[in-house]
């Protein structure tokens, strides 16, 4: 899956625009939720920055890592907190680690 000059992929664009179904489709077609742009941000960072809660939930369910750090040392969770996207912050805080590679929602 190709990226633009800044490393932004189609999955990142879909995530930023809250297109959860497109995010799922792109991952089904082979896009990786762990690919990083030139700033070290993955698609879920774009959700957390723009407040795209539906896409964030979709990517989270597909194994996106919200605790990974970008080149400035920030996590996606911290970005959501800084931007005041409480829905995303609450979603992340309702979860618990499942393994080193994924997370699961608490009941």
Notes on the protein architecture:
The protein is mainly alpha-helical. 46% of the residues lie in helices and 6% in strands. It is built from 6 helices and 2 strands, in the order H-H-H-H-H-H-E-E. The protein has helices spanning 10-16, 20-28, 43-50, 53-61, 76-83, 86-93; strands at residues 95-97, 103-105. Strands 1-2 form a two-stranded antiparallel ribbon. Helix 1 (10-16) runs antiparallel to helix 2, helix 2 packs parallel to helix 4 (53-61) and helix 3 packs parallel to helix 5 (76-83).
Summarize this structure as a short list of keywords or feature phrases:
single chain, mainly alpha, about 45% helix, about 5% strand, disordered C terminus
Q: How far from one another are the termini?
A: 35 Å
Q: What share of residues is helical?
A: 40-55%
Structural class: mainly alpha
Strand content: 5-15%
Oligomerization category of the chains in this entry: single chain
User: Helix count?
Assistant: 6
Main sheet? 2 strands, antiparallel
Radius of gyration, whole Å: 12 Å
Mean pLDDT: 85
Topology as a string of helices (H) and strands (E): HHHHHHEE
DSSP strand count: 2
Stretches with pLDDT under 50, minimum 5 residues: 98-107
Overall shape: it is globular
Taking strands numbered 1, 2, ... along the chain, how are they ordered across the largest sheet? 1-2
């Amino acid at each position: 899956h190709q990226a633009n000059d800044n490393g932004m992929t189609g999955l990142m664009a879909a995530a930023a625009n809250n297109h959860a179904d497109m995010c799922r489709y792109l991952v089904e077609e082979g896009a990786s939720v762990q690919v990083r742009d030139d700033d070290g941000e993955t698609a879920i960072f774009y959700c957390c920055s723009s407040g795209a809660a539906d896409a964030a939930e979709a990517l989270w369910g597909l194994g996106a890592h919200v605790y990974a750090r970008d080149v400035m040392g920030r996590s996606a969770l911290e970005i959501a907190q800084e931007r005041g996207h409480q829905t995303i912050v609450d979603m992340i805080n309702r979860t618990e680690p499942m393994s080193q590679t994924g997370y699961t929602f608490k009941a």
